[in-house]
Each structure stands twice: as C-alpha cells, then as structure tokens.
TrEMBL record, chain A:
<keyword id="KW-0067">ATP-binding</keyword>
<dbReference type="InterPro" id="IPR017871">
    <property type="entry name" value="ABC_transporter-like_CS"/>
</dbReference>
<feature type="domain" description="ABC transporter">
    <location>
        <begin position="6"/>
        <end position="251"/>
    </location>
</feature>
<protein>
    <recommendedName>
        <fullName>ABC transporter domain-containing protein</fullName>
    </recommendedName>
</protein>
<keyword id="KW-0547">Nucleotide-binding</keyword>
<dbReference type="GO" id="GO:0016887">
    <property type="term" value="F:ATP hydrolysis activity"/>
</dbReference>
<dbReference type="GO" id="GO:0005524">
    <property type="term" value="F:ATP binding"/>
</dbReference>
<dbReference type="InterPro" id="IPR003439">
    <property type="entry name" value="ABC_transporter-like_ATP-bd"/>
</dbReference>
<dbReference type="InterPro" id="IPR051120">
    <property type="entry name" value="ABC_AA/LPS_Transport"/>
</dbReference>
Automatic annotation (TrEMBL), chain B:
<keyword id="KW-1133">Transmembrane helix</keyword>
<feature type="transmembrane region" description="Helical">
    <location>
        <begin position="35"/>
        <end position="56"/>
    </location>
</feature>
<keyword id="KW-1003">Cell membrane</keyword>
<feature type="transmembrane region" description="Helical">
    <location>
        <begin position="237"/>
        <end position="256"/>
    </location>
</feature>
<feature type="transmembrane region" description="Helical">
    <location>
        <begin position="62"/>
        <end position="85"/>
    </location>
</feature>
<dbReference type="InterPro" id="IPR001851">
    <property type="entry name" value="ABC_transp_permease"/>
</dbReference>
<dbReference type="Pfam" id="PF02653">
    <property type="entry name" value="BPD_transp_2"/>
</dbReference>
<feature type="transmembrane region" description="Helical">
    <location>
        <begin position="183"/>
        <end position="201"/>
    </location>
</feature>
<keyword id="KW-0812">Transmembrane</keyword>
Amino acid sequence: MSNNQITLKGVKKSYGGRVVSDIADLALGRHGVEGLIGPNGAGKTTLMSLITGKISADAGEILFFENGNRHDISGKKLDAVARLGLVRTNQRIQDFESLGILDSMLLSVVQPAQETVLGLFAETALRQQAHPAINRYLEAFRFSDPGGYALSAGEKKLLDIIRCLLLKPKFLLMDEPTVGLPQDQTDKVMEVVREAARDDGMSVVIIEHDLDLIWNVCEYIHFMADGRIMAQGTPDEVRTSTMVREKYMGEGDA
Amino acid sequence: MIDLLSGYAIFSLSTVLVFVALATLLHLQFGLAGIVNFGVVGFWGLGMYAFGILLLNFQLPYFVALILAVAIVALVAFVLGWVVLDLDSQAQLVATLAFAAVIADLVTTEKWLTKGVVGLGTVPHPFGGAQSALWLLLILLVLTVGVIVYARLLGRSPFGRLLAAIRDNEVLARNLGKDTSRAKLIFFTLTSAGMGLFGALSAPVRQFLTPDLLGPGVTFSVWIALIVGGKRWPLGGLLGVLLTIFVFDFLIETYLRVPSDWAQIIPILKLMLYGVTLVLVLLFRPFGLLGDRRQPTSHL
C-alpha cells in the first residue's frame, strides 16, 4: 500500500459568489486506487485543478505527503507540484501539435540536466536511456503510426496518459480517463495503472462517470456533490448509500 | 568583374550578415519558442550604443567593452523578459515594441552620453591595417554561421523539444513538471544578448552611430525576412534575408547602375516590394517558403 497522501483542510473556491469547492477535511490516497464520483458540476475537476495548482484556492491548506516527506502545496505552481510527483491526466484532449508520439514521450522522460540551452548533444543519450520505458508503452498500446503523430482523439487521450505515467508519478490524478477511449484500451490503461500502484506504490484517484470501472477498479470511493464531499467508503458502502442513489444514480437505478 | 570587394561591398555584406544573424536569432525566439519579440532593434541598438559608449566615452579596451556591452543587453533582456514572457503574445508584442522605442528615444535625448542626433564618434575596427574591414566581415561570417549551427543543433536537442512544447501548449508542458517560465527567461536572455552582440559588432561596421539607425525598420526587415524564408527553420532567416535585404541593399545598391533620378525611388520601391512579398507569402505559404516543419522523431 502506498505512503503517498493528499490532505485538504478548509479548502474553498468560489466564482462570483457561487461556491464551487468547499472541502472541510479530505484525505486522498490512503487506499491505493480511489474513485471520485458525483454528478456533473459537483466540482470534481475543480478539486483536481486546486490540488495541482492549475487554479488557486481562496482559502485552506493542501498538503502532499510522499515517502515520509511533507509538502505544503497550497498556492504552489502547477509545474512545481508536478515535479514533486503529483501529476494529473487531462479530461479534455491536450496535445503538443508539433511533437510526434515519440517526441511527446521523450519530453516526459528527459532529465532536467539533459534539457539545457547548451545541452546540444544530449539527445543520443536520452534516446538510449528512454528506450525501455517507451518501448514498453508502445508494445502495450497500439498506435496506428508510432513513428508519427497521434491522429485520433483516442490516441491523443492515450498519449496524454502515457506522458503522465512516464514521469513515474507518486500520485496520479486521472480526470475521466475513459472518455474517447475504446473499451479494450481503457482496460489496458487500467491494467497499467493498477500495476504501477501495486509495484511502485503510486497512489491514484480517478474521476469517472463510467461506474462499472469505478466499482471494479477502486478500493475506496469519495462521492461529491455541490462542491462538498458527501459520502466516503468502500464501493459497496457507497453503492448502497441512499443519499448517493438519490443525488447521483436516481432511485431504482443501480 | 566589378569591384567585388570594394569598401562599399564589404560594408553591405557585413550588414547582410548581421541581418541573417538577427533573423536566425528571431527564428529561435519566435519560430521555435513562440516568443513574440518586436523589439529586435532595441537589443541590437542597445548593444551597438553600449559598445560605442564604453569604447569611446570610457576608453575601455576593445574586447572588454564588447563583453560588457553584451552583458548589459543580457541584463536588460532578463529584466524585460521577467516582466513580459509569461504574458500573452499581444502583450509581448506591445512591450517589446515599446522597449525598442524607449531605447531609440533615450539615445536621442541623453546627449551627455550619446551626443544625440549629432552622433557618437567613430568606432574603429577590431583590427587595424589595410584589411581591417575584411577582418570584421570574417568575424561576422564566423559568428553568423555559428548562430545558424547552434539553431540547427538546438532544434534537435531536448531543450529545443521543450521550447516547441512550450510554444504548442504551455499549460500542458507545466503539467508535465516543466518550469516553462525559467526556460523561456533563460532562452530569451541568451538570444537577446546574441542580438546585442551583433549590435556591438555593427558599431564598427557603421562606424558613425546616430539615433536614426534605431528606427523600427530594422525590426520589420528582420521579421519580414524570417516570415518569407520560414520561421520554423534554422535556414529560414538566411533564405529570407537573401531574398529581401541582400537583393536590395547589396545587389541593387552595389552593382546596379541606376539613373540618378531613380535613386530616390528605390528605397520606396523596396518597401513596397517587401510588403507585396510578405502578403503573397502569407497568402500562399503561411509558414514561409521552406514551409511548416512536421518531421517527428520516427525511431529511437
């Protein structure tokens, strides 16, 4: 089980008087792979943006614990948070238009020491060093043209996730990973993510509307509505909660 | 053969080389990293005047003055970059354009330092002797080739890839832990200092420095050349300068015998042709004559 944890205390964010996030006390990452579910507009994506520093909170404290180190990441910049090993995959498709699939992966793998204004000849060493990790993903996931560009929306989504995994994060936040991906690719992504969680101690939180995936993959679930955490527990506990059924799944469903 | 290496030919070729270097440096800033620098003449002119002032007013040794002048440009670029690089491209455009205007105005008004429109004294060539202008031309040639080689190598290096990623999608690059602000600032400082270096070396080419050298025409010529040639390519600046500045400022002005009545018309004609060329290129080859650069890494 992982040692990596994110805790939020009194974190608030509002836009023009509308409170989109109001998290009194929340701990993420205690249970390996966790799920974050809730109706549209519940504030799930906003919560992830607050944690990674893409947007800043109006108030509150966000802490990140990894391997016994404690980092106060409230108000930290997006890239600084990512360098601590807390990385997020994107809900909407994000890509580097002029980078091919391999370039995209090399961009993730490269060490800061190789990425300098005068490092004009670091490329060969980088490619050799990146070879095993990149090949592993190219074998697991079939791109129609691995030596070219990610063409379809699904390939771009997949590439986004692979870029994050290549960073070897300590904590991975996944925002709707299945959207735009075919089922067999989704299964493979989840397999790889679970493997990393098990072998490398990576903590994972997944936002998903595909509840089958949530029930199957997650060991613990946070349920969110109206910017608040309303329920927490094992998949069975959350699935049978009357409140969750009323607010999210609708009575008689599930 | 017409006096190929007459004094005027050497002067024109030196000027052309300086423009090739500036256009290649702009390729690095804009074509590679996506930084919109409309203050090229500001960095170039600051290097030129700083060098001239350190050399003539403060009597510093030649190469000490040169290094100090480049250091001053680097410092100014660092401060300006720190303020504007994280703003959007329109803001960068306005800020750098304003910076260049401020430099030109300061050079005009601060007469105690620059002698204003009267002009700073004569900046000598780095080496004396009969072939001094030719030596300067050679130095410029070596340095310009150096900039092009650097641009070519950088484009295929990890840092070049990072810059392309920042240009394409900066938030996504930061999402991957890239300190994009730092990368842009370092790179902008370095490349702007390069513009300052070529400015300093333009001082002995020009010899007599006056504020009218610092008009926005320099910036626009460099931009037009780069866009015509191909902003994404290390050789785009070279090609663009050959097709624009080289044709007019070198071939026509040096070798074409024009009737004296026409002499007045040529500079105007030049600007009109620049404009027409730019419009045609933007219409039919928006990425310049060399085109877009889409060649991904195809194997490891």
